[in-house]
Specification:
This protein has 33 helices and 59 strands. It is of the alpha/beta class. It is globular and about 95 Å long.
């Protein structure tokens, strides 16, 4: 403490001395500096805080780096870590009181973090010295929003500043640009609205992963290597031994090897060796020697001898890429270039030059003005270069055949474009063009013109003169009327793309035939009717997502018709389209199919799903060309009989009213491979053949949600090639064993939601079976499937399993086993030991009856409980995650969230780990729902760091709370979401959507916003071809098109609200809101309901990751949470079936009954979800599990559940005092003690070494060591301030002894002190406080084993916090902050001078008075953080509750001392 105070005083003296030294100088420049250091607005003061300077050497001195003599600069010598954030560098260390006062005076003042450019900041420098040396390249610059780059450079004698967005390209700033204003504008575009909050966020160095400033251009060695290699080496020309070796300058640039004739000089003759098509070979007779040879009959050869192996490998690698090319192409895209290398002009054979995504300038030796020096250049790509003006010098390259100037903010095209007579392809997408010059019409060879996402209001008339143009792309413009007469005059135009315009009418006044157009794309417009009967030769038409009521076409040459998502009641095509092969009429209002559809002779695919069809024509089903018929979600009551053999291969009839299928279906449609008749009322299925011998080729059969019984098994035998069989949610009492044994090709079997008591032992005959799903049955005996050689997934949850007979070993292929919801299951040590090797094992936590009863009696029950389910589908990894906390912030609140990463699993796991903590922190700043929810998403977006630069995820967060101004008021549900995750509330049996789908297809205003921002939307409706979502967390490189600002909505809860459903895109694409509500109403258990939703979506055809969460609500009008005496409920295993055992339920729907759960932990079902790495040894797994044979007391009946009481009507029989800050009794049992919650064991085998499905290289910030996935992330769960508590009262001790039941049957009081170091802080937590910390969404992970995917498993008592913290991803600032560099200062260091003081303070904890308490809700921070030299320690989600818990706050020790 004394050392720190002395340092602070010394730093203050140094700052004051520096300020006094430059006061007069600052006045001479016209800016007055007051005595208190506040800067007058007439001349904004610029204060630079040099980071990383040695405190002792620099104290009171003006020497050292950054100590410039420029006026107005005060260098504050602080020990600021490079990756500093709010958690490890306080405002006291960053700024003195004068700086804080100056910042507080005006929100237009702030701080800019300025980095040096010596090394690439995105990559840690190699070698141990790089990590141990202090970082000296970070400067904190205090300035205002009007401070320009020119002023900053003048203050520091710099040459310029550079900006980098999202870790991508680096751009030189213009002298007139204002860096701080750029940061403010960037934050405002993200969604920050409060000026004070913007000021604080701009000063956070964690923002550098989104926007970062450099004082010098950062050097990227890898890019330099790919662009240019040069050096002085020994060179010999030719293969003859007569030539001698000589030292020469050698350069490899572009497509040529350049050898100077004079050593160390480029003034003499340069020898050029073209390498494309040539050879580069290793010379084995000489060490580190390469032979370069050109192609052709007059090939030349050079031998180059390199000095080191590294040089040899570098040159060989780069030269091999050049010689392997078939054309002379140079790719310099995404290099942040302002000019091409001057050596590149020696490569005169270059024909293709790609300069996309750079910042090319006109002037300079390598500027655009010199590009005409390439005499053979044919293709030039200058897109995304921020040119602003069309470079006229390009029009001088007369050999060009392809030119791209997309996304350059061009407003006009010069008349010189007419010089490019050889031009064939011209791309001008994403600009501001509204017209084209007449000279463009002289380009006789131009055949493709791209004008998408500009500002054209009509098709340019100049196209009438372009006789060779056959393809016109004008998507995303402002065309409102399509004049077919004008198209008729464009005689060669065949392919027209008018997507995403504002088309309202298509007119043809003269009825003139348009003969040349064959492909027309009119998707996403505003058309209400469309008549294209005069377009005689139309072959392909896309008109999806309009408002069409009628459609009239010519069928002479029509091949493909896509008109889904309209309001069509009729489609007129004349004559009959005999060439039509593909037709999509889904999601319309068709009540019948037109007759011409049945007359089509070549139609192969017909999609009429989501219409109002009541019957299918007999001629259609008997068509001799139809191969795929999709007619689901209609009103069909019967399917016509098949009269003859048909070539039908796929038939989808789900969600209709079918009672039976045609008797001849399977032996008339012998090619049928896919049949989906789920969600009908079938009572039986037709036989596979008329005789014993079957010719069926059926491979996939989906019969979910019908009325089938066990008799259907006899008809399944004939399908010998069946691979996928879904019979979920039928009326099966059993499955014939003899029938199952004949399905030898079966790979996936789903029998969930029936009344099965056993799986036949003949399932062992299905040697190819890899997935068995049979949850929500009455199964008591574990099926014989563990000997199957290819079994991967087994789901037997929500059954009545008693024991599991095991063999000596498990199949190596088994990846997941789900046994949750089996209330009578007992696992032996041997079983647990064997199961510990399964990557993902889901089990219920065990608890004795007494412990569960005590836990319910002592804890205030929440009026809600939850369950959730996840399915990976056909993917190899699970890219969804869930956050569920029934008791949030240790109060009567709840937090639920789901996250969908589409094709990446990293971002969903990171959000699962930390978003609850971020919400807790934001609730300290504001109580306005739109503010704290919006800031929660924005902060989570920033804290993703480098992982969120290229990857992203949809996110939905639900927060159940009361109004802070009315603690006893009604509950409210605040929902915020980005992307496609959705929330639906069931109120009075009807769905109430609470979220907004942010996709380009569903949200018109978002689509317009993205278009205005000049994003390129591809034909599959994705931004830059990446994502269909316009708002995501992560994917920051797509900013400003894709933003993290969420939709926020608050809904007051009432007694009519039954439950809440959360789901990702895959769920609600297949299951409608109303069906989801009806499904949950029929199932009483939230976990079983969530599983049923996922099973239904999978049976309806979903192949993607599916995630569903169900939250049961019991909220009365006055927010009383007392539980009325419910009727006796059946066991959980039968609660999800269609007809539960026992007495039938009353006609009134029974709400979902909440089960006891640990409310402060992430949960997978009704309580805690935990994941245990299989890397844990067998002995550890057994010790954590405990002995179920000796320590558990089995009982035949279910213990009576005590009546739940609320705070308004407390229970009168409750004795004892609940100790706030300590865990309720019974909530911290051993990991396998029974609770209605589950524990998941995972070794994260879904990890793909940090690679996305389409990635070619590991992502920065994502590290993998094979089986474990590590993401650079600070879990933010160790940075707590020192706390101490009073001695425990005897009543408290008795209470704990009565409620907790540890593995040894008694409570172990932890009196030891756990010490750890995180974020550069010393952590000391006493035993009493450990119980309090377990209640935080983030700190609960410290007292359980937390893995990289965010899941938690409860450890044994002997585990301490240091062992557990080692499992968390290691990062020393913020949650996820770039760049990642090891910092040895963040090790656990206790200075010898402080050891005695620490011991004395810890000893004095038991001497404190126990009557002190803290308010449950700390006051909101309305002032900026600069006001507090020691900002309040939010401690993640730690909010001390009321009660006799004394807390003594000590200063955070900086380990750097």
């Amino acid at each position: 403490m004394a050392m720190e105070d002395e340092d602070v005083k010394a730093a203050a003296v140094a700052a004051a001395a520096a300020a006094a030294t430059h006061t007069q100088t600052g006045k001479k420049k016209g800016g007055d500096v007051e005595d208190n250091g506040t800067c007058i607005d007439r001349q904004p003061d610029t204060v630079m805080c040099q980071a990383g300077l040695n405190r002792t050497a620099g104290r009171g001195s003006r020497s050292g780096p950054g100590a410039h003599a420029a006026s107005g600069i005060r260098v504050l010598k602080r020990n600021i870590k490079r990756n500093g954030s709010r958690s490890c560098v306080t405002r006291k260390t960053r700024f003195g009181s004068r700086e804080r006062d100056w910042l507080k005076g005006d929100t237009q003042r702030g701080c800019v973090c300025l980095y040096g450019g010596a090394v690439d900041p995105q990559l840690p420098a190699p070698g141990p010295q790089a990590s141990s040396a202090p970082q000296t390249d970070l400067q904190l610059v205090l300035c205002s929003t009007t401070t320009t780059v020119e002023e900053l450079c003048a203050q520091r004698n710099g040459q310029g500043l550079y900006v980098q967005l999202h870790g991508d390209l680096v751009r030189r700033l213009e002298p007139s640009e204002c860096p701080l204003q750029m940061v403010y504008d960037y934050l405002a575009a993200l969604g920050y609205a409060d000026p004070v909050r913007v000021q604080q966020e701009a000063a956070n160095s964690d923002l550098s992963c989104l926007i970062r400033f450099y004082s010098e251009r950062p050097v990227n060695a890898d890019q330099q290597e790919r662009m240019l290699l040069k050096g002085v080496f020994s060179v010999r020309k030719g293969k003859s031994q007569l030539h001698k070796w000589a030292e020469r300058q050698v350069i490899l640039c572009g497509t040529c090897l350049i050898v100077a004739s004079v050593k160390d000089s480029l003034t003499g003759k340069m020898h050029i060796l073209p390498l494309v098509g040539g050879k580069v070979e290793e010379v084995k007779r000489r060490q580190h020697c390469l032979m370069f040879s050109s192609a052709g009959s007059q090939a030349q050869t050079y031998f180059v001898n390199f000095d080191t192996l590294a040089d040899y490998q570098r040159w060989y690698r780069q030269a091999s890429k050049v010689v392997s090319q078939t054309v002379s192409m140079v790719d310099l895209s995404c290099y942040s270039l302002e000019a091409v290398p001057e050596y590149l002009f020696y490569s005169q054979d270059v024909t293709h030059l790609n300069l996309r995504h750079n910042f090319m300038s006109l002037q300079g030796p390598g500027g655009l003005l010199n590009l005409p020096r390439f005499s053979q250049l044919k293709s030039l790509n200058l897109s995304h270069n921020r040119l602003g003006v069309f470079p006229e010098c390009v029009c001088e390259i007369l050999t060009l055949t392809e030119l791209s100037l997309s996304c350059n903010s061009l407003q006009t095209v010069p008349v010189q474009i007419g010089n490019l007579q050889s031009l064939q392809t011209l791309s001008l997408d994403g600009n501001l063009l509204g017209s084209l010059p007449d000279e463009l019409g002289g380009l006789a060879q131009l055949n493709s013109l791209s004008l998408s996402f500009n500002s054209f209001s009509h098709i340019p008339a100049v196209l009438e003169r372009l006789s060779a143009v056959d393809k016109l792309a004008m998507a995303g413009n402002r065309v409102e009327i399509l004049d077919l007469c004008a198209l008729a005059r464009m005689s060669q135009l065949k392919n027209i793309d008018l997507r995403l315009n504002r088309l309202q009418h298509v007119r043809n006044e003269s009825l003139e035939a348009v003969n040349q157009v064959t492909h027309l794309d009119l998707r996403d417009n505003c058309l209400d009717s469309l008549d294209l009967s005069t377009v005689c030769n139309l072959e392909v038409l896309h008109c999806q997502r309009n408002q069409l009521g009628t459609l009239t076409l010519s069928g002479l040459t029509l091949r493909t018709l896509n008109s889904s998502s309209n309001r069509l009641t009729t489609v007129n095509v004349y004559p009959v389209p005999n060439q039509l092969t593909h037709m999509d009429l889904s999601q319309n209002l068709l009540e019948y199919l037109p007759d011409w559809v049945c007359d089509c002779r070549k139609v192969e695919m017909l999609d009429v799903t989501h219409n109002l069809l009541s019957e299918l024509p007999t001629r259609l089903l008997n068509s001799l060309s139809l191969r795929k018929l999709l007619a689901g979600n209609n009103h069909l009551q019967r399917v016509p009989d098949l009269l003859d053999h048909v070539p039908l291969e796929a038939l989808d009839l789900q969600h209709n009213k079918l009672v039976e299928l045609p008797e001849s279906l399977f032996y008339k449609a012998l090619n049928l491979k896919y049949l989906n008749v789920s969600a009908n009322v079938l009572e039986n299925i037709p036989p596979s053949s008329q005789s014993e011998e079957s010719l069926s080729t059926l491979q996939e059969l989906y019969l979910t949600s019908n009325k089938l019984n066990e008799n259907c098994g006899a008809h399944l035998v004939g399908h010998q090639h069946l691979r996928v069989l879904h019979l979920a949610y039928n009326h099966l009492l059993s499955f014939p064993a003899s029938k199952l044994s004949k399905l030898e090709q079966l790979e996936e079997l789903n029998l969930s939601g029936n009344k099965l008591k056993t799986i036949p032992s003949t399932v062992s005959s299905c040697k190819r079976l890899h997935t068995l799903i049979a949850h929500s049955n009455h199964i008591t005996v574990f099926p014989e499937i563990l000997n199957l050689p290819e079994i991967k997934l087994v789901d037997l949850s929500c059954n009545e399993l008693n024991e599991i007979p095991l063999s000596d070993s498990l199949p190596a292929t088994l990846q997941e086993l789900d046994l949750t919801g089996n209330s009578t299951l007992t696992l032996e040590h041997k079983t647990l030991n064997l199961f510990s090797h399964i990557p993902t094992l889901k089990l219920d936590q065990k608890s004795t009856t007494a412990a569960a009863t005590a836990a319910d009696a002592l804890s205030t029950s929440t009026p809600w409980c939850h369950g959730y389910s996840e399915m990976s589908g056909h993917r190899n990894k699970l890219c969804v995650s869930v956050l569920a906390v029934d008791r949030f912030r240790d109060s009567l609140e709840a937090c639920y969230g789901i996250f969908d990463g589409d094709r990446n699993e990293e971002v969903p796991r990171l959000l699962q780990c930390t978003m609850g903590d971020v919400l807790c922190e934001e609730l300290q700043h504001s109580s306005v729902d739109s503010v704290f929810m919006c800031n929660t998403f924005l902060m989570s977006h920033r804290k993703l760091g480098m992982a969120g630069q290229k990857l992203g995820a949809s996110a939905l967060l639900c927060y159940v709370h009361r109004d802070p101004s009315e603690p006893g008021g009604v509950f409210s549900l605040t929902v915020a979401n980005v992307g496609t995750c959705q929330a639906v509330l069931c109120r009075d049996g009807r769905p109430v959507p609470l979220s907004k789908v942010y996709s380009l297809e569903n949200c018109t205003e978002e689509r317009e916003r993205v278009k205005v921002a000049k994003a390129i939307i591809t034909e599959d409706n994705k931004v830059s071809g990446v994502t269909c979502c316009s708002r995501l967390l992560g994917c920051s490189y797509l900013s400003p098109w894709v933003l993290p600002k969420p939709w926020v909505h608050t809904e007051p809860l009432c007694s009519r609200d039954e439950f809440l459903i959360l789901g990702n895109r895959a769920l609600f694409e297949r299951v409608s809101y109303q069906e989801a509500v009806c499904t949950v109403q029929a199932v009483r258990d939230p976990r079983a309901a969530a599983k049923k939703l996922c099973t239904l979506a999978q049976s309806y055809g979903c192949k993607d990751n599916i995630e569903a969460a169900v939250v049961s609500l019991h909220v009365s009008e006055d927010s009383c949470t007392c539980e009325p005496s419910p009727p006796p409920l059946p066991p959980p295993s039968s609660s999800s079936t269609a007809e539960p055992k026992g007495a039938p339920p009353p006609p009134v729907p029974v709400p979902v009954a909440p089960g006891p759960a640990d409310p402060a932990t992430l949960s997978a079902s009704n309580g805690v979800t935990s994941e245990l790495s299989s890397e844990t040894s067998t002995s550890e797994a057994v010790s954590e599990a405990g002995s179920t044979a000796s320590d558990e007391q089995t009982s035949s009946g279910v213990a009576p559940r005590p009546e739940r009481r609320c705070s308004l009507h407390p229970a009168t029989a409750l004795c004892g005092i609940m100790v706030p800050g300590s865990a309720p009794a019974g909530t911290h049992q051993g990991p396998f003690q029974r609770q209605p919650s589950c524990a998941t064991f995972s070794s994260n085998c879904q990890s793909d070494n940090g690679l996305d499905s389409d990635d070619e290289a590991p992502l920065e910030g994502v590290i993998s060591n094979g089986s474990r996935l590590e993401v650079e992330v600070d879990i933010h769960c160790c940075a707590f301030q020192l706390r101490s508590g009073g001695p425990e009262s005897p009543k408290d001790s008795d209470l704990k002894r009565g409620g907790c039941n540890y593995l040894n049957g008694k409570l172990r009081r932890q009196n030891s002190v756990v010490v750890s170091a995180t974020n550069g802080c010393l952590l000391a937590v006493c035993g009493r406080e450990i119980m309090d910390l377990k209640k935080s969404p983030s700190t609960s992970s410290l007292f359980a084993k937390k893995l990289s995917n965010g899941s938690v498993v409860v450890p044994e008592d002997s585990h301490n916090i240091i062992e557990v913290a080692l499992e968390a991803p290691k990062k020393k600032s913020g949650y996820f902050t770039a760049p990642a560099q090891p910092d040895p200062e963040d090790q656990l260091i206790v200075p010898p001078s402080l050891e005695q003081e620490v011991r004395e303070q810890l000893k004095g904890q038991n001497l404190l008075v126990s009557g002190l308490s803290l308010p449950s809700n700390p006051p909101c921070l309305k002032e900026p953080v600069w006001n507090h030299p020691h900002p309040p320690a939010f401690a993640s989600s730690l909010v001390p509750g009321p009660g006799p818990i004394p807390i003594l706050q000590q200063e955070v020790y900086d380990t750097a001392l």
